[in-house]
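Honest question from a wet-lab person: if I give you the sequences of every part of a complex, can you actually get the arrangement of the whole thing, not just the pieces? Trying it with mine:
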Amino acid sequence: MSDLSMIEAVLLTIITASTPLLLAAIGELVVERSGVLNLGVEGMMIVGAVMGFAATQATGSPYIGIVAAMISGVAMSLLFGFLTLNLMANQVATGLALTILGLGLSGMVGEAFIGQPGISLKPIAIPVLSGIPFIGPLLFNQDVLVYASYGLVIAVYFVLFRSRTGLIIRAVGDNHGSAHSLGYSVIQVRYLAVMFGGACSGLAGAYLSLIYTPQWVEGMTAGRGWIALALVVFASWRPARVLIGAYLFGAVSILQFHAQAAGIGLPTQLMSALPYLATIIVLIMISRNKTLAKVNTPACLGKPFVPDR
Amino acid sequence: MRTIFKLAATAAVALGLSAGASIAADPLKVGFIYVGPVSDHGWSYQHDQGRQAIEKHFGDKVETTYIESVPEGADAERAIERLARSGHELIFTTSFGYMNPTLKVARKFPKVKFEHATGYKQAKNVSSYGARFYEGRYVLGQIAAKVSKSGTAGYIGSFPIPEVVRGINSFMLGAQSVNPDFKIKTIWVNSWYDPGREADAAKALIDQGVDIMVQHTDSPAPLQVAEERGIMGFGQASDMIKFAPKAQATAIIDDWSAYYIARVQAVMDGNWKGQDTWGGLDVDMVHMAPFTNIPQDVAEEAAKTLAAIKSGELKPFTGPITKQDGSEFLKAGVSAEDGALLSMNFYVKGIDDQLPE
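Yes, you can. This is the full assembly:
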């Protein structure tokens, strides 16, 4: 294998490892920007994974699987929304409960699919662009979910920071009292944000069970939802930084495997910890400006909204 | 509130009644503790197959219970005690980390019999049992060396513990019996079970030029990657041919059924006693999936090796064997004792990687 194609192969696996994190994190970013802390990402993700797999097996079409994964993610998030936004349940506790529920529920639904090989989603080459040497096969010969992740990052950036809608979402997240008195429906905005987060988590789950490892096994998210959650915080709620964080995490976790295979004799425990360390350090470095960090943090994050009257 | 109390009281009575009824019918109650979910399609799944085999074999003479996903440690003790307290006469604890909790509970319940998997401590009412998976890995090594064009296999390890290190060494000895210059690249994923990481590790190994995939982790993900990239590989714990119809050459399968049935029978016959069992291919505790996707002569050769190990004629760890650092492990013609195998913490010569401490 030539050096160039080796680098290309490595970068390709990095994209695969990073995409589920990016998908889940970009959704949670919007949720948190609206002032809601949903710790149930892992639970929504795994339900997305099993429903995506189930629908694909039933219909033979991974695309229907993707839609099913999104719908189930949204359904889970609606449950969260109802409990926290309508019944004012504690968001942290509800999020944790959502994760536990998701893990249990997915195990139950998935029972029938254990040991079945899945149908893998094939990449789609974008004409012309995929012909560009090196970059083409890397960025423009991917599956639809990778494209979706690029699109989502760009869209979330523009909507949040360059549109009126984004202004409303951020207002609700920063000061729900003021947003309410200006006439915005805090609950409605938050519901939409939470649903968006659910759909993204569902997509991330579908990515795992349809592309990353086309199969269903219990607990296959293996903590990726939690990593996505952490990425959002360390990226100080900025879409571009979430992108950097997700790819950095993916890159270091793949590169440490290559280092091991090449026979670099570092302790494997240290190698496994590297992605976490590197990502946290880099993101802290980027966001070390205290004033900006304060501005970026949604001031009403995790606070329940009770309208005065 | 009163209603709730009433309900609780009724439930308690109902439970009491059902317990009474079960004593009257007198089936032998057998309990199981699993470290993972029964649907992991690997380690715990295979133990549960053993439990189902007991039910099938003994019918209504037994009643089985299992508790899944029990973390190793303090929780394990509670779970084991719960089974012991609720009238289970024979309890299988199926992970290494349950060893001390099992012994502790066993002291409290001298009449209950315990079976602990993969441990090394026994007591009057505690047996230990394990399987010689390494025997199968010797056969894998031989097949690998015959079909590999690059002469390099990729090996995905979970944790650098004796069980896994022994497997790598056995695989290497099998490979060296065919090609003395055979190479292994190892990646430790520090997990028994994370399909995503296992797949990433497999891709990294293939990108570095290996053309055989071996794993000591529990998900079919690495084999699936092997299938996708068009190289050969081996299934782990259960037959994974469905995930890799073109890539799986064979698989090492754990089979606890015969042992579990025998132990239940022993309790029924009243001749159960605390002992240590380390069974291999000879007693079918380990067996191998059909040889597929490999040339006829390679399959025949592998079948011969398999038969030789089964009959005891061939022992994978037989000297001369030199350790990686050049010191002698076994003199020519000498076979390793179980103690040396169980505590193995070094690589044999020919493996270039460093064994993590």
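Two things worth pointing out. The first helix of chain A runs from residue 3 to 33. The radius of gyration of chain A is 20 Å.
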